[in-house]
What we know:
Layout: H1 3-15, H2 18-25, H3 29-43, E1 48-50, E2 54-57, H4 59-86, E3 91-97, H5 105-115, E4 119-125, H6 128-136, E5 142-146, E6 157-165, E7 167-171, H7 174-177, E8 182-184, E9 192-196, H8 201-212, E10 218-223, H9 226-234, E11 239-243, H10 244-254, E12 257-262, E13 266-274, H11 280-294
Parallel strand pairs: 3-4, 3-5, 8-12, 9-10, 9-11
Antiparallel strand pairs: 1-2, 5-13, 6-13, 7-11, 7-12
Pfam family, one: HTH_1
InterPro entries: HTH-type_LysR_regulators, LysR_HTH_N, LysR_subst-bd, WH-like_DNA-bd_sf, WH_DNA-bd_sf
Family: Belongs to the LysR transcriptional regulatory family.
Amino acid sequence: MNLKQLNYFHQLAKHKHFAKAAKACHITQPTLSASISALERELNTDLVIRNSQFLALTDEGKILLSHAEKILFEQQALTQALSVKSGELSGKLKLGVVPQSDKDIISIVKRFNHKYPNITLVLRVMSNEQIYQELDSHALDIGLGFVPPNEASFSAYQFIATCQNRLAYITNQKSITADLETCSLSQLDGQKICLLSENMKFRQLIDTALETNQIKIQLVLETDCMLSLATAVKQGLGGAIISLSSAKAIAEAFQLTYLEIVGGELSKTAFITRKTSMTPATKAFLALLDEYQQS
């Protein structure tokens, strides 16, 4: 057994498809299949349930996957630690962010890139649930997501740079916002509103806030794409409720106007990491984050 075989197996478990996993590994499908078969012979057990295609991992395959994730993570951490000794920190830092947060992630990323130019930053937008899942499987180094109300139940994680998520109403109707800087949720009662998809945590928090305050909006569009949401507002389909930081950026880019929603704070967001098993790049990012907060 070697690291290459473990990576092939890990990619197969991730993609659940032989051809896609082979493509991710930059090898042919027969080469991938042969590697998995060799691993099964060496361990004297079936790892994958398959006929002409991948169906699932066996129980033994799930055990191997758990160990493979940790081994591949430690390889990454070792490579980064050695890079420091030979020069500058290098490697990858994998970040996952929820679609809506009041954190200005790009400005922090820019500072990190300036200080550690040899680290490739991989930034993906994902659901809050996905962030915790990928932190658990070591597929992610740092998440930017919502802090759970029962934080004590998430003792395996640390929550850093926590902030309250503020809401804003964005519109193309400049006459509505001409003399105002803020509004309340109640003022949006009966308005035509565009929202992010209901499977997103941010949307669920908005729905809860509207229901709690007995506010009924006219939902005219829901989408999982911020660009589509902004375009819909620009073309007059309706206004939108998004995070304040997103509203500022979209208003400038699309020549729209926004009002901060007073009393519209949602659940807190924070940078989330595992308390253990952190790569040198993760530790460097957290140190820079601490500097950023103090500046």
